[in-house]
Amino acid sequence: MGDRYFLIGFMGSGKTTLGKVVAEKTGYSFIDMDREIESGEGISIAQIFSKKGEKYFRQLEKECLNRIFNLKKVIVATGGGVPCFADNMEQINSNGKSIYINLTPQQLKVRLQTTDLTSRPLLSGLDDAGLLDFITDRLAERNVFYSKANFIVEGENDDIIIDKIIDIIDSEHQQQRSYF
Ligand code: S3P
Questions:
Q1: Which amino acid residue places its CA nearest to atom 2 of ligand 1?
Q2: Does residue 177 surpass a pLDDT of 90?
Q3: Helix (H/G/I), strand (E/B), else coil: 43
Q4: CA–CA gap between residue 171 and residue 166 (Å, rounded)
Q5: CA 10–ligand 1 middle distance (angstroms)
Q6: Which has the closest alpha carbon to 169: 151, 146, 143?
């Protein structure tokens, strides 16, 4: 079961960036759910939202998760909303280990401002103050789901968080070995 690690957290928390580094350093494969969904549909996330709606996108996320449950030795960057819909969080915890990258609204805002906000349909059109308000409100709602994670990691910078995630994976392996 510990062969699948799901990185969960708000948009901009670094699930993709950090997940790729962790996968490289641990020898796991890496999957980004948003990229999987985009390649399956042949259009961007923003286009899926605008052409087919959020409900359709959330269904695609569920189907994508179910496919991932068949893979082994994989680090998964989930989309920020994945844990918060249907029974996804319970399914994730039954089929692997979840790691919540827990950043403050201010940290998330700074990180998101270095990205193209129009690629994230929930954020496009927000100005500076609007972005912080949106993050603060939505994070408070979503923390109900994110806090169900098996592990929670925090940190001032990417390197600290990467080391913490790798420590979690290493210690899970040591525990598994000690059962034999
Ligand atoms: C979303 C997060 C996005 C993407 C979509 C919706 C969300 O992924 O799945 O725009 O509901 O939080 P990232 O967390 O990778 O930005």
A1: 80
A2: no
A3: coil
A4: 9
A5: 8
A6: 151
